[in-house]
Automatic annotation (TrEMBL):
Gene3D superfamilies (UniProt xref): Laminin
PANTHER family registered for this protein in UniProt: OSJNBA0016N04.9 PROTEIN
Source lineage: Eukaryota, Viridiplantae, Streptophyta, Embryophyta, Tracheophyta
Gene Ontology cellular-component annotations: membrane
Membrane disposition: Single-pass membrane protein
EGF-like calcium-binding domain span: 297-333
Name by which UniProt lists this protein: Wall-associated kinase family protein
């Protein structure tokens, strides 16, 4: 008996594991680049991705790094639900004490006619105030103003509540962005003077550098250490992806050869940022809807929190049954 027990545990564990395993990528394709999971329609090997979803996994880095093929932006994570993050430098501009420009970094995001658009989870942030007031903004591909805000500093930052972790216009400001954008180029403009000043309205401190950047607003938590900063940094920008070669689900399902929702038991829903659509597995199924047979039945009996059962639970395809144990009656759910 003592000898048999460990054997039983070993025999049982693979069964439990295989029940939950749904395919991530096409058969024979790698689904990891470093520690980043790459689900189909994405892929980085020939024949492993849908057109427009090719990535580059550069293994000359340790750990390997993932990039958007043809665009070069580095991907830090991919969600099958239609979002991913790229790492983009903040625009930096640094000045000396008399206001002379010393150094800086410029940047932009240009996504062309790709499946990628800037997500509404991003905000534009402007940090610092080299000339007391700093307007951070960005323009579209035609050079037209899109969104922006003004950051101004006060003599003592800590004297104002609410600046810790949030951008309220003191040392840091935040502006939301519109949908449908595939281009972003940040800019900044200074007001006031860098030198000692007794402006009756804004008696303020200055910072050596200003930063303007787009970032997922869940990521950025402003604190006063950013006002002392003089070096470059990268920020995660949220990107919405979708199947965009046709406008919506109803149109896409006319051409089953091209339709991206491959698995049975999928749902299709229209993109809420730009044209296109996304697929997900139906309720009670999980996995990758972009792969044939990618949506697998969920074993509800193993998920008692979501699917309660106080009796005998039996998993069925697409559902489960919950009955009172033999000899009892009542409501088992
Ligand atoms: C991947 O590794 C990096 C550092 O090596 C870490 O910061 C990041 O959180 C990891 N991502 C995942 C999804 O585990
Ligand atoms: C990987 O990165 C290195 C260093 O940046 C570069 O020289 C090389 O061309 C890249 N390889 C691929 C396949 O892109
Ligand atoms: C700002 O620049 C001045 C010189 O212009 C320098 O003395 C000071 O240390 C700098 N501050 C920071 C935080 O780097
Ligand atoms: C600041 O930089 C400008 C040129 O960018 C230079 O003319 C000026 O002398 C510098 N001032 C100081 C205090 O370094
Ligand atoms: C400006 O900030 C520095 C560092 O936080 C502080 O020592 C100094 O008193 C401030 N100046 C004014 C005018 O508030
Ligand atoms: C700001 O927030 C951090 C972490 O949330 C906390 O450690 C710090 O004490 C706060 N600073 C001030 C001035 O409230
Ligand atoms: C302020 O932000 C910097 C950069 O993200 C971080 O390293 C530091 O720990 C933060 N400080 C506080 C008090 O939260
Ligand atoms: C669906 O997309 C097609 C073009 O791809 C467009 O002609 C049609 O009007 C769209 N239908 C809806 C309901 O948006
Ligand atoms: C359906 O999609 C396939 C694959 O993209 C394409 O070759 C074909 O021309 C499309 N058929 C129609 C009727 O649009
Ligand atoms: C599928 O995606 C839509 C839109 O994001 C969402 O409302 C729905 O709950 C999802 N369905 C499942 C079963 O997750
Ligand atoms: C799932 O089973 C329950 C009873 O166990 C039933 O009430 C429900 O209608 C079933 N749902 C589907 C989608 O079949």
């Amino acid at each position: 008996m003592l000898l048999l027990l460990p054997l039983l545990i070993v025999l049982q564990s693979p069964q439990v594991a295989s029940q939950a395993s749904a395919p991530i990528s096409l058969p024979g394709c790698r689904n990891k680049c470093g520690n980043i999971t790459v689900p189909y329609p994405f892929g980085f090997e020939p024949g492993c991705f849908r057109e427009d979803f090719g990535l580059v996994c550069n293994e000359s880095y340790s750990p390997p790094r993932l990039f958007i093929s043809g665009y070069g932006y580095e991907i830090t994570d991919i969600s099958p639900k239609g979002e991913l993050h790229i790492s983009v430098a903040a625009k930096r501009a640094c000045y000396n004490s008399s206001g002379g420009y010393i150094s800086g970094t410029n940047t932009y995001i240009a996504l062309g006619t790709s499946p990628y658009l800037l997500s509404l989870s991003n905000s534009l942030f402007a940090v610092g105030c080299p000339y007391k007031m700093n307007q951070g903004y960005f323009v579209d591909a035609d050079g037209y103003y899109v969104s922006g805000c003004v950051s101004a500093c006060r003599p003592t930052q800590s004297s104002l509540g609410g600046t810790n972790g949030s951008c309220t216009g003191v040392g840091c400001c935040e502006s939301s962005i519109p949908s449908g954008l595939n281009f972003y180029e940040p800019a900044s403009q200074n007001f006031g003077t860098a030198t000692e000043e007794t402006d009756p309205i804004i008696l303020s401190n200055t910072t050596n550098c200003s930063y303007v950047f787009l970032a997922d607003s869940n990521w950025f938590h402003f604190n006063n250490s950013y006002l002392l900063r003089t070096t470059d940094f990268m920020a995660p920008v949220a990107i919405d992806w979708a199947i965009r070669n046709v406008g919506n689900c109803s149109y896409a399902s006319h051409n089953m050869t091209d339709f991206a929702c491959r698995s049975a038991n999928h749902d299709c829903h229209d993109s809420d940022n730009g044209a296109g659509y996304l697929c997900n597995c139906s309720k009670r199924y999980q996995g990758n809807p972009y792969i044939t047979n990618g949506c697998k039945d969920i074993n509800e009996c193993e998920m008692k929190d979501e699917y309660p059962c106080f009796g005998d639970c039996t998993n069925t395809v697409g559902n489960y049954s919950c009955t009172c144990p033999r000899g009892t009656e009542g409501n088992a759910i």
